[in-house]
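WARN retry 2 of 3 for item q-0093 after timeout on previous attempt; input resubmitted unchanged.
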Amino acid sequence: MAWRGHLSRNLKEIRFLFCQTSPASSQTREFVQRNYKDLKTLNPKFPILIRECNGVQPQLWARYDMGVERGIPLEGLTEAQINKALQDLVQLGASLKA
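OK item q-0093 returned
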């Protein structure tokens, strides 16, 4: 999982959006609780934003250079699938720089 240390190289920020109480957001909440510390330790100055809002569908947004953003809906995804979605966004950032 070396890609986790490359967040700050390939992205400008990531945002997790989810509801604090809805079952649809439960996997996203668990992913953030289990992985935030590791991601922040590997990327200490990189902005990892957590946005909780009642009734919002879980989403992951990545912002790249020049204001380009990509979002992925996370509803129904497992923790492993959310991890893969984040990895895909990081890889996309690397390809945008090439």
